[in-house]
């Protein structure tokens, strides 16, 4: 029954998953999911952060929290700097299965990248797992921005590093694809934001495309043989 309820929650995500967040079930466990968030604006713009979401055996019982761990490095007050674990228990001290679902978790995952201020003071601040990030956020905005930009660049560099068993996998674009795209742009006009309708002199035919593919393949083979 617990697994059935979890599968219903997952199906619910197809219509209600927060924008830019994607979750895929593991191939080995019904209670393990692999996810990624693409941050589109704010301090973490262009960050690509991968994570796992794991539900305990007694998930859907009161106070049986799911666990979110980022495999990408995230410099954020809400993420433990060593383990990568998200402070879900601090955000939801009492997990209520009648009110809290997978979509609740993913909404919080997204929210931490868009927070604009922290109003807690004193003892209340201690709940955040990355105290250094919190101090920089409050006292040195430029220093915090630099650290965040470092973590965004690291997330981009490591996006093609796929953990064993991860069902959210990224593959590097093969060189032939890059060459083909460049040749098509040179021969028939670009697709960039500044291109106008006049940049494309005529309709690109199937033969044009096949011919360009052949040119791209030949260029790759020549480079390999050089």
What is Rg? Answer: 23 Å
**Low-pLDDT stretches:** 191-202
Question: How do the helices and strands follow one another from N- to C-terminus?
Answer: HEEEEHHHHHH
How much of the sequence is in beta strands? 5-15%
The class by helix and strand makeup works out as alpha+beta
Per DSSP, the total helix count is: 7
Strand order of the largest sheet: 1-2-3-4
Molecular structure report:
The protein is an alpha+beta fold and 226 residues long. Helix content is 39%, strand content 10%. It contains seven helices and four strands; from the N terminus they run αββββαααααα. It has a four-stranded antiparallel sheet. Helix 4 crosses helix 5 (141-157). The radius of gyration is 23 Å and the shape is globular. The N and C termini lie far apart (62 Å). Mean pLDDT is 85; it is low at 191-202.
Describe, in short, the structure shown.
With 226 residues, the protein is of the alpha+beta class. The chain has seven helices and four strands. A hairpin with a 6-residue loop joins β1 and β2 (32-38).
SSE map:
Layout: H1 2-16, E1 21-25, E2 32-38, E3 48-54, E4 67-70, H2 88-91, H3 102-111, H4 131-139, H5 141-157, H6 175-188, H7 206-225
Antiparallel strand pairs: 1-2, 2-3, 3-4
Helix pairs in contact: 4-5, 6-7
Features:
single chain, 226 residues, alpha+beta, 4-stranded antiparallel sheet, 10% strand
């Amino acid at each position: 029954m617990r697994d059935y309820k979890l599968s219903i929650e997952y199906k619910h995500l197809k219509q209600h998953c927060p924008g830019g967040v994607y979750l895929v079930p593991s191939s080995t466990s019904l209670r393990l999911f692999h996810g990624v968030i693409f941050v589109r604006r704010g301090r973490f713009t262009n960050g690509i952060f991968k994570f796992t979401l794991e539900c305990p055996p007694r998930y859907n019982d009161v106070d049986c929290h799911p666990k979110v761990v980022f495999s990408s490095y995230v410099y954020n007050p809400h993420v433990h700097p060593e383990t990568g674990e998200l402070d879900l228990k601090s955000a939801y001290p009492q997990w209520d299965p009648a009110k809290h679902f997978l979509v609740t978790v993913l909404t919080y995952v997204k929210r931490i990248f868009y927070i604009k201020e922290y109003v807690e003071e004193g003892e209340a601040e201690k709940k955040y797992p990355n105290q250094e990030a919190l101090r920089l956020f409050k006292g040195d905005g430029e220093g915090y921005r630099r650290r965040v930009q470092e973590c965004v660049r690291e997330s981009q560099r490591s996006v093609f590093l796929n953990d064993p068993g991860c069902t959210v996998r990224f593959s590097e674009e093969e060189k032939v694809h890059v060459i083909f795209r460049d040749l098509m742009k040179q021969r028939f006009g670009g697709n960039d934001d500044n291109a106008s309708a006049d940049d494309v002199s005529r309709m690109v035919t199937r033969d044009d495309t096949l011919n360009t593919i052949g040119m791209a393949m030949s260029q790759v083979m020549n480079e390999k043989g050089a």
